[in-house]
Design goal:
The complex is a heterodimer of chains A (296) and B (371). Chain A has 10 helices and 14 strands. Chain A has 296 residues and is α/β, with parallel strands linked by helices. In chain A, helix 3 runs parallel beside helix 5 and helix 4 packs antiparallel against helix 5. Chain A is globular. Chain B has a 4-stranded mixed β-sheet, with helices on both faces. The two termini of chain B are 26 Å apart. Classes of the chains: A alpha/beta (296), B alpha/beta (371). The interface between A and B is medium-sized, with 28 and 23 residues.
């Protein structure tokens, strides 16, 4: 039985369609990423899967149980970390953990092995109020609380939003550890570069899933030539490229511009164009973001 | 049961960690009782009087002395023309103007009757009525003396009905005995309703409820965990307020405290359920404040704290059937001042219990984890 099966899920809020005909499956002990910009419907989808919302259309089964009929079972066996820090800021680190352990009828000691690696890093601050922790520590505490009842499936809604680069890296390595414990992880993120960390990803845009595949699979479907252009003045060059008749797409990517020329122009024409405009460039391989933009 | 206990523990920890909580619980009742009970007085003292005496006779002076001798009146000023009196009324220097025409004494002696005019500031109709009554009393007394003097009778030779009245349940008509129980009701209601209403919506604002909703906590466990602490705090508040009332104002406690607290316990269920209902329907603390404030204002003004229920129009008295504050206001005064027991307030008990049942079910029905 697959831990998550969504079949043709749609959700409407009055006249707005937040989700339209979403279907996907997640395998056991897999890190499955929902990648998409804000407003793509990631949180709505999470809330349907973890029984907080009822879909307008379609059915979902989580851990083999129906999300509407068997919500009680699901609430017992999944862990959820909402996008916003949602533990009690007035309670200390330890009190929060204890509270969540108790309402799931377990104790910190019982499942300590699962959270040990994560909790160790904040244990020194266990008497500090959760509200006074730094962003990265809050995130670790939230993850510990979501794990304290040994869930079979973990929902992480934008866990790395607003967290520094080092903590983000750490966080992903923690998730890989959890995977070794056989926990299935469903994670959403607006950061395209994090897609590479997932086993499989679903690219979401305005309530639709555009593609589901392994990160490498998605990248391999990109069937254009892609160049990285390194101009002196990035904004001027971007304007130039965007208005040029040979450009298919051009967008800023860090210090460079990812540029895709139209198919019917030859290498010679491209070389000529670049030289005449005094631009340095090299052939580059596409990443998930390029694929995402191409699909939009 | 274990879940409820851990919820309660969490709630109490958070309540007492909140720095504003202890002052609210201990300082608010003290200030409310001290300020409101002393300020919201119905006693008329120092009524400012202006006298226009165009007569300047022995009789008019006697009437003047009658007023200046009364503890209720203070003669602000007097003049011989009408304008002076009117001006002082306009400027607010006088509450009442007594106007005695030229020939006041002469008419009394020759025609056996005379006239005096009374001008009362009617902005506050309640005080105006009282001033009118007090003044008429003084003049009636003056009349009696005039009659006695003119007939050359000794006081006891005149035939008259003497009324001696006694005020039951508040013999000295001490308005504090009337106000303190009323203020206590308001205190307990504010604490119960606002704290409950703000608490749950705060979890919504902070997002903590999102995490709680994806746990096996059951609806009733959550609701009990939320209501019980404030129920307890509000009951404590009643006890604390009663103690203060006894110590500071020596209010009578005629009835049994058991009756009073049993009623308060059920009454608070209604109030907390209303708070819960507002709170689960609202999205922000601001919304809660406004809605709660609106209800409180209507409930309090209709409750009979200032205006006796009996003097309200019939429709208002009927509407009060759904005003929980009116019930508690009545019961609190009946038990404290009159010593009413269970049997005397059985009707109120039944009504408030029905209320509690309905409002609690409504509030629990409205609270949903899934949308």
């Amino acid at each position: 039985m697959k831990p998550v099966i969504a079949e043709n899920i749609s959700k409407h809020f009055k006249s707005t369609a937040a989700l339209q005909h979403i279907s996907f499956e997640v395998d056991k002990a897999e890190i499955f990423g929902l990648i998409g910009p804000d407003g793509a419907g990631k949180t709505t989808l999470f809330r349907i899967l973890n029984t907080l919302l009822i879909p307008t259309e379609g059915t979902a089964s989580v851990l083999g149980q129906d999300t509407i009929r068997d919500y009680k079972y699901i609430r017992h066996h999944v862990g959820y970390m909402p996008g916003r820090f949602s533990l009690y800021e007035d309670l200390s680190v330890e009190e929060n953990l204890n509270f969540y352990a108790t309402i799931f009828q377990t104790s910190i000691e019982e499942n300590y092995s699962l959270i040990e690696k994560i909790y160790k890093q904040i244990e020194a601050f266990k008497d500090r109020k959760a509200g006074n922790l730094s962003g990265g520590m809050k995130q670790k505490l939230a993850l510990s609380c979501a794990l304290i009842h040994k869930p079979k499936l973990l929902f992480l809604d934008e866990p790395t939003t607003g967290v520094d680069a080092v903590s983000r890296k750490e966080f992903w390595s923690m998730l890989k550890d959890l995977k070794q414990h056989g926990i299935t992880i469903l994670v959403s993120t607006p950061y395209m570069d994090e897609a590479e960390q997932c086993d499989r990803v679903a690219l979401m845009q305005s309530g639709h899933i555009m593609d589901i595949d392994k990160p490498a699979g998605i990248v391999s479907k990109f069937n254009h030539r892609l160049f990285a252009v390194y101009p002196e003045n990035i904004y001027e060059a971007l304007q130039l490229l965007k208005t040029s008749p040979i450009t298919h797409t051009a967008q800023i990517f860090g210090q460079s511009i990812h540029w895709v020329p139209k198919e019917n122009f030859s290498e010679a024409e491209i070389l000529n164009f670049m030289h005449s405009n005094n631009l340095n460039y090299k052939v580059d391989s596409p990443n998930i973001e390029d694929c995402f933009m191409e699909m939009m | 049961m274990r879940t409820i206990l851990i919820l309660l523990r969490k709630e109490f920890i958070m309540i007492f960690r909140d720095r504003t909580m202890l002052p609210i619980i201990f300082v608010m009742p003290l200030l409310q009782l001290l300020i409101l009970v002393n300020a919201a007085t119905f006693d008329m003292k120092n009524i400012k009087m202006f006298i226009i005496d165009k007569d300047h006779s022995a009789t008019s002076l006697r009437l003047q002395n009658k007023f200046s001798g009364s503890p209720f009146f203070r003669i602000e000023d007097q003049s011989m023309n009408v304008e002076g009196g009117h001006n002082s009324l306009l400027k607010g220097n006088a509450d009442v103007v007594l106007h005695l025409e030229n020939g006041f004494e002469h008419d009394l002696m020759t025609e056996k009757q005379t006239k005096a005019q009374l001008l009362v500031n009617g902005i506050n109709s309640r005080t105006a009525g009282l001033i009118n009554a007090y003044t008429s009393n003084v003049i009636a007394d003056f009349n009696k003396n005039v009659i006695i003097d003119n007939l050359h009778l000794k006081g006891d030779q005149m035939l008259q009905v003497n009324i001696s009245s006694s005020f039951w349940f508040n013999p000295s008509l001490n308005y504090k005995n009337y106000m303190v129980p009323g203020i206590l009701v308001i205190l307990v209601t504010i604490i119960g309703m606002f704290l409950t209403a703000l608490n749950i919506v705060r979890e919504k604002e902070l997002g903590t409820i999102e995490q709680i909703n994806v746990t096996p906590i059951k609806k009733h466990q959550f609701v009990i965990g939320k209501l019980f602490p404030f129920w307890l705090i509000a009951l404590f508040e009643l006890a604390f307020g009663l103690t203060l009332g006894k110590l500071m104002f020596d209010i009578p406690i005629e009835g049994s405290l058991l009756v009073l607290f049993s009623f308060a316990a059920i009454y608070l269920l209604v109030i907390l359920a209303l708070g819960l209902f507002i709170s689960v329907s609202a999205k922000t603390q601001q919304q809660v404040m406004f809605v709660t404030f609106f209800f409180m204002l209507v409930f309090i003004l209709m409750s009979g704290l200032f205006t006796p229920e009996n003097s309200m129009p019939i429709w208002a008295q009927r509407a009060n059937a759904i005003n929980p504050l009116a019930y508690f206001m009545r019961v609190n005064r009946m038990v404290l001042l009159k010593g009413s027991g269970f049997a005397d307030i059985a009707n109120e008990f039944i009504s408030i219990s029905v209320f509690a049942l309905v409002s609690l079910s409504l509030a629990i029905w409205r609270y949903r984890k899934t949308k």
